[in-house]
Amino acid sequence: MISNKEFTAAVNKHRNSLYKRIYYLLNNAEDAEDCLQDSLANAYIGLPNFKGECSLHTWLYTIVTNTAITYRRRRVYHYSLIEGWDTKTNETHYVPERVLERKELQEAVASNINNLEDPRARYMMNERVYNKTPYKVLAKRFNMELTCVKSILYKGRRCLAHKMKHMNNMLN
Hints:
- It is a single chain.
- The protein has 172 residues and is mostly helical.
- It folds into 2 domains: 4-82, Orthogonal Bundle (Rna Polymerase Sigma Factor, Chain: A); 95-171, Arc Repressor Mutant, subunit A.
- It has helices at 4-26, 29-45, 56-82, 96-114, 119-131, 135-142, 146-171, and strands at residues 85-86, 91-92.
- The chain has a two-stranded antiparallel sheet with strand order 1-2.
- The chain is flat, with a radius of gyration of 19 Å.
């Protein structure tokens, strides 16, 4: 088991290389800093799971890499909704219709999330969608197992998808 002091020392020692890895994957300083903070928070929460089978630096490097990949996936999806992402050329271009569609979609999603019957699902969905709160943090807040949080979010997403599909059918 690694102590908090050892963890802090390792983070301070390797922070620069971890940041460089994230920046390489995201190519955006602000996103890289946010991602690094989330990665280190996840690593700290998962510290009891560190078995010492690899070096702490390798373990942290894996966590920041996986978190950065997740950030990048979200960002590509976000760009495709907002501006119009040309997947062939990897270029972004401004499409006014997409901006309006995105705004309407955001309002519909927010409204439907806030109309979910289960108050826990409502809270957790808002936290995940708008604050990108990790599952482990939600589990801690609600004092429940991680699998329970995932189950509540899964049911909330299914309900949200059903409501959005129903709404889309009414519009067409």
